[in-house]
Amino acid sequence: MSEQQFYHALKVDKDKCFGCVHCMNECPTDAIRIRDGVATIRKDWCIDCGECMKACPVDAIYVEQDDFDDIFNYKFRVAILPSVFIGQFSKQINVEEIIEVLHGLGFTHIIPAEATVDVINQAMLEAYDSEVEKPLITTFCPSIVRLIQIRFPGLVNNILPISPPIDSTATYYRKRLIDEGKNPDEIGIFYVTPCASKIATVKSPEGQDNSSVDGVINMDFLYNKVFHILNNRNKDIKDNDNYNLEFISPKALKWSLTEGESTNMKGRCLAIDEIHNVIKFLNKVENDEIINVDFLELRACDQSCAGGVLLSENRFLTVERMKKRAEHLEELQLVPNEISFDHQQFIKEKLTINSIKPRSMMGLDNDMATAIKKMERVRRIMCFLPGIDCGACGSPSCEGLARDIVLKDANLSNCVFMQRMMEKSKKLDPQHSIRIIEKTWGKDRLDKDCYKKGAKNEGI
Amino acid sequence: MDFNYEVEGGNFAKAGYAASNVKKVLKQLNVDPKVIKRVVVALYEGEVNVVAHAYKGNIRVDIDTERIIIEIKDEGPGIPDIDLAMQVGYSTASAMVREMGFGAGMGLPNMKRNADSLNISSTVGKGTVVELTTYLQK
Q: Considering only CA atoms, which of A90, A275, A111, A309 is closest in space to residue A194?
């Protein structure tokens, strides 16, 4: 698994990317460099959190998805639908209508991604009672798992080796359809993803041998389709409390929100969302500055999945709507469809994932003596670099550039301030420094362009 | 390779700065995460001690492939009875410091537990020097 190339869903559209520093500055793992005028993502460093996509001013970073028509390669077309999808719709639209539209689009089965939450929660609680390193860290958010692997390798043993709902729901539902006598080759399971990291994990799941999902559909794509149809539908709104989405308890409905897990675990539990918050917190956990915490729910996005990069509606409204829907469910006192005992056992058996291995990307060299030499060089180079962290060199910070130089991925003359100093002492020809800048930012990048973003002819 | 950090007495918000920086360095040097953890925990305790008790301090970290030596030097009240200070639970921290969640009397014992050797010398009314050594090859 660790030898295998990691799948990443985030891609740079080289035609749209015009080369700026927004994504590079936001990337929490310093995975982005600007080369030849476009952002490039270092695959081993990327954790698919989507911060770059949120930061891009020209939508040049996108999430690769499967062709929607792929669903028609199957007779039984299952949509695994996270509850945040429905959470985006206002209360005027009831779940029934949304499901109806989704059926109309071609899905034969619509399954909440959180259908297996109650079984998972039970397994998590059982694991809590066994002798394990505390604080336990949930695998719910794949970006967090990857973050720990590359930046906090000392905490990999704290990761609770229980698969997140999406994986177990897909596995369980396939099994259920097969048990109903359906031909396995005719079952297609499609995950409607709220973010890049979930795609990356269903394509190359961490700690699992293969994926249980046949394809991935971006949530914004499907939301737009459904929203459009609902907007143009016959306006007589039916009053319908018939909640026909299967197997969902109020707990499961709120599982993907901040505190969705932490309020259902034992001991002292904390929920932290947003990747930079998580990094700061994990730093303290690693220093033993924070002790006596039993469970950590860590999510890469602000407001957890409601803040997923592929959601269309405002995340705070989505959270409010989901909480209201959960309250409503509670008032109705509907008993969620029970998963049969045999299937619960089946889900449980499949829940345990292999232990997560560290793959630190921070080391300057595998050999410590060489790494020390390299770090001494980084520190010497830092004596010269201005410490402005402007990113004009194509690296995220002066220190990042110094590291890139030592690792032979950049030169000192990439720094535009170093160029001035070198020109002043006649060590660099001004024409040459323009060529260096063009190597980073692309040819003719500095020519007058009145059509660029913010310029007078933008949009013409 | 040497690293130096200044520590400001009384500023708990900044306590942990040196520990976090040294951690970043050690990760880049590919040091075993278990060793990193011990070094960082000991250093953090040392930093907190300076912040809680002294006026100001200085930390010097010396790293080579064999060992990591940390020297924490402060200008402060000094420790009158080092043996007593090494006892688990013994603390001279003020009520205010305790209120902030520090001062449980675990600082020096924790440092000793996490380092391979610990040396303290102290002059009452002047300050304290703590030297921690951690060996990398076991």
A: A309
Tell me the pLDDT tens digit for each residue of A186-245. 999 999 999 988 887 777 666 665 668 888 999 999 999 999 999 887 665 555 444 456
Q: What is the spatial distance between Cα A432 and Cα A435, in angstroms, rounded to a whole number?
A: 5
- Interior angle at CA B118, CA B114 and CA B119, nearest 5: 165
Nearest CA to CA, how far is B81 from chain A (Å)?
A: 27
Number of other residues whose CB lies within 10 A of the CB of residue B70 = 25
59-98 of B, contacting A, C-beta below 8 A: 63-65
Query: Are residues A56 and A304 in contact, defined by beta-carbon separation less than 8 angstroms?
Result: no
Query: B2-135 — its CATH code?
Result: 3.30.565.10
CA A331 distance to own-chain centroid: 33
**How many residues in chain A?**
460
- Find the distance separating the first CA and the last CA of chain A, reported in whole Å: 49
- Does B42 touch chain A if contact means CB atoms closer than 8 Å? no
Rounded to two decimals, the pTM is: 0.89
Cβ-proximal residues to B11 (8 Å cutoff; 6+ apart), any chain: B51
Domain ranges of chain A: 10-61, 68-351, 368-441
Q: Of all helices (H) and strands (E), which one includes residue A81?
A: strand A76-81
3-state secondary structure A384-426: CCCCCCCCCCCCCCHHHHHHHHHCCCCCHHHCHHHHHHHHHCC
Q: Which of A70, A46, A56 is nearest to A17 (CA)?
A: A56
ipTM, two decimals, is 0.87
Residue B29 touches chain A, beta carbons under 8 Å:
yes
Answer whether A295's CB lies under 8 Å from A270's CB. yes
Question: Measured between beta carbons, which residues in chain B are less than 8 angstroms from residue A287?
Answer: 16, 19-20, 23, 40-41, 44
Looking at this protein, which amino acid is placed at residue A397? Answer: S
Of A288, A368, A379, the CB nearest to B31: A368
Give the SS3 label for residue A167: helix
CA A337 to chain centroid, in Å, comes to 30
> Which stretches of chain A drop beneath a pLDDT of 70?
1-6, 204-211, 234-247, 334-337
CB atoms within 10 A of CB A332: 11
Level-2 CATH architecture, domain A10-61: 2-Layer Sandwich (3.30)
How far is the C-alpha of A130 from the C-alpha of A26, rounded, in Å? 39
C-alpha pair distances (Å), A401 with each of A199, A292, A434, A459? 31, 39, 19, 35
Helix (H, G, I), strand (E, B) or coil at A60: coil
Chain A: which residues have CB within 8 Å of chain B? 153-154, 283-284, 286-289, 358, 360, 362-369, 371-372, 375-376, 379
Peptide bond into A142 cis (omega under 30): no
| Nearest residue, CB atoms, B16 vs list A153, A287, A360 | A287
In tens, the pLDDT along A320-343 reads: 999 998 888 888 776 666 788 888
Pairing assessment for the beta strands A136-137 and A269-273 based on DSSP bridges: unpaired
Distance CA A249, CA A325 (A): 11
Which residues, 6 or more positions from A342, have their beta carbon under 8 angstroms from its beta carbon? none
